[in-house]
Design a protein that fits this description.
alpha+beta
Amino acid sequence: MSEYIYTEKAEKRAEALGLEERKAGTVAMIGHKPLQGGMTAQAWKKKGYVIEV
């Protein structure tokens, strides 16, 4: 299973939108669980919000 972490772009975007903090380099979360592969992970990766490690 791959792990995804937030990028600096995600951190800045979340801050601009007033969303919950998303620190670059931390594990990407969705619904209080780590982001796993699938459509959401691929969409966030394509937008540059996460990278796969």
